[in-house]
Every structure is written in structure tokens, then in C-alpha cells.
Amino acid sequence: MAEPAAQPLRERRFDAGPQEPAPASYLRPYQRVIDREGATFDALLWTSRASQEARFAALSDMIDLRGAAVVDAGCGMGDFAAWLGARGVAYGHYTGVDALGALVAAAAERNLPRTSFLRGDFLVDPGLYGRLCPPAKAEIVVFSGSLNTLAFAQMLSALDGAWASCERALCFNVLSDIGPDAGRFASGPARAVRVASLTEWALDRTRLVSLRTDYLEGNDATIVMRKNRA
Questions:
Q1: Please, how many CA atoms are within 13 Å of residue 192, restricted to the half-sphere of its CB?
Q2: Cβ atoms 99, 3 nearer than 8 A
Q3: Cβ atoms 128, 161 nearer than 8 A
Q4: Which DSSP string do the residues of 171-187 spell out, in sequence order?
Q5: Which of 20, 151, 219, 229 is the 20 to 30 A CA-CA neighbour of 5?
Q6: Are strands 93-98 and 169-176 parallel, antiparallel or unpaired?
Q7: Torsion sign (Cα): 92, 88, 116, 138
Q8: Which among 173, 186, 177, 171 has a CA at the least distance from the CA of 219?
Q9: Residue 144 DSSP code
Q10: What is the mean pLDDT of each run of 10 residues along the chain (230 residues)?
């Protein structure tokens, strides 16, 4: 069932509203932890804070986010914005989008500078990028960890929507099939991806593709796709 259309969150408190429909299958692993523990770090399904931050560092090293309007698709609790701010990376504006209301509420409560948070599902509603409220816009779209529970076809659909909507670049990370721990993800909920196939998909859309697998012992891969050389 489709998630409600993205709506701007204008207050720091979040009203969950009436009883909601069951989440889509790719959201259920997150929702189960939220139901058990609330909006905590564990609900993001990262194996550790260190692995989360290693992925953030790879993204930040590969593209200059200073002054940029960044859209974080599957933002969780806004950890990427907080990480950038703590390291002095002065993005122009950060818009976090997540399908799970509890995570959006927790992100908004942090009151991070130059941020806004929206509830919406980038998979079922790719048009949400075009409805971002000023000063937000989809200049650089980032997925960090938010593709890991998707089937490969769903992942490509989500990335296609983001690529069509972004102005400058699309940046994302995935669990890598060439890492020593790839077999550990065979049963889910997170899945390793054939990096060669994903790189081929990216190169079909732009020749300006960068790939990194030299962190987390090769168990992760980050791809940056640019629309121009700027």
C-alpha cells in the first residue's frame, strides 16, 4: 500500500494521527524495532555507529556538499546532517525524507540547523522530490543505508526516480557482494548487491561515475553519479 504523500513537517513535534496501515515489506524490519524500542539507533539497522559513520565519511569524501541543497532519502533520524555539522561541512540546506513517522518525528526534535524533514516513501512516490518546499530542492540526492532492504528491481526504481529529479548528483551506498561478509546478508533483511551490475546501471546513465569499495573491508560500496563535472 502506498505511503501518504510527503508533507512538510512544520513543527518540532510530530502527530502520528490515526491508526496507520501496515508498512511495506521493505519497511517492516525497521518498524518491528520501532514497535519494540521506539525511535532508537537500533531501529536504523546499522550494525554499529562506527559502520554508519564510515559510510558517511565515504560519501563526504567523494562529493563536496558545502553550500549544496542535500536531500537524504531514507534519512532515519537525520544522523547524516548531524555528522556533517559536527565536522564543519556547511551544507546549504538538508532535507530528510523517510517513510516512517516515528523516525521523522525524532529527526525533527533534534532541531538541526538548516534542515527540514518530510514524511514520504521515495519508492512508491518518486514525485516527492519535485514537491520539496523552498529552500529545499533535490540538488544532490543521497541514500545511505536506506536501499539495503530493497530487492534489486526496487532499488533501481528508487535510484531512477532520484536520478531523474536531482540537479547535480546522486550518491548512494550498498552492501557489496564482493566483500568477505557478503554471505552473511543472504537471508536478509539487508541484502548484498552485485556491485558490477549496479555500476553498469550507473554508467548507462552517465559517464561521470565514481566507485569506492576501500572501506569497511570491502563489505560496502559507494557510488556517486554526476550530471556535470562541476
A1: 18
A2: yes
A3: no
A4: EEEEEETTSTTGGGGTT
A5: 151
A6: unpaired
A7: positive
A8: 177
A9: S
A10: 42 41 88 96 95 98 96 98 98 96 97 95 86 74 96 95 94 95 78 95 98 97 89
Q: Is 108 helix (H, G, I), strand (E, B) or coil?
A: helix
Query: Of the candidates 96, 67, 62, 41, which has an alpha carbon nearest to the alpha carbon of residue 173?
Result: 62
Residue 102, phi then psi, degrees to nearest 5: -65, -35
If residue 30 lies in a helix (H) or strand (E), which one and from where to where?
helix 28-37
pLDDT, residue 15, reads 37
Q: Report yes or no: 96 and 75 within 8 Å, Cβ to Cβ.
A: yes
pLDDT of residue 7: 45
Specify the pLDDT at position 230.
56
CATH of 18-226 among 3.40.50.150, 3.40.50.300, 2.70.70.10, 3.40.630.30: 3.40.50.150
Domain spans of the chain?
A: 18-226
CA atoms within 13 A on the CB side of 133: 13
